[in-house]
Amino acid sequence: MKNKLENQTGKAKVLVVDDEAAVREVLVRKLTGQGYDCATAVDGNDALGKLKTDRIDLVLLDISMPHKSGIEVLKEIQDKWADTAVIMVTAIAEVETAINAMKLGAYDYIIKPIDLDVLLVSIDRALERRRLLLENRAYQLHLEQKVKEQTDRIRQ
Fold first, then answer.
1. Cβ–Cβ under 8 Å, residues 43 and 19
2. Torsion angle, alpha carbons of 106, 110, 114, 118, to 10
3. Beta strands in 24-68 (DSSP E)
């Protein structure tokens, strides 16, 4: 059975959301080299549009962007695509902002300039946590179905 984190090419899909083209380019180059399937978005609205049309496993999300802040986008991702892991990547090094992002559902908070090795570890952990949550949910649904079937048999 194919892992839910893998698309048809067997790679996790990562959406890199940053209004700085250079940041997007460096991250995509590094992640593609590590075997991830990458897409990019220039701002929050662009990111939400891509989430509507494509299956995304993980979002690397900048906080300070035009039109919609990363925090606003994070809230919307949690509401509509709760199975998508989110890592905040930002130049804002405030503890309060980081805590708020984590409370809202971000898996991690990485400060620019980005240590790419630290980012890769965070991505791996976030995707593993996502995989375990999806497997647990599937197991629970399967278990509920089995209990229902057994209850039906007993009633008969």
1. yes
2. -90
3. 37-41, 58-61
How many angstroms separate the CA atoms of 20 and 39, rounded? 14
CB 16 within 8 A of CB 28: yes
Identify which of 71, 65, 22 has the alpha carbon closest to the alpha carbon of residue 46: 65
Question: Does this model's pTM top 0.85?
Answer: no
**Sequence-separated (6 or more) residues with CB below 8 Å from residue 106:** 61, 74, 86, 87, 88
Strands (E), 74-139: 85-90, 108-111
Q: What is the pLDDT along the chain (156 residues), one digit of tens a residue?
A: 333 444 444 689 999 999 999 999 999 999 999 999 999 999 999 999 999 999 999 999 999 998 899 999 999 999 999 999 999 998 888 889 899 999 999 999 999 999 999 999 999 999 999 999 889 888 888 888 888 888 888 888
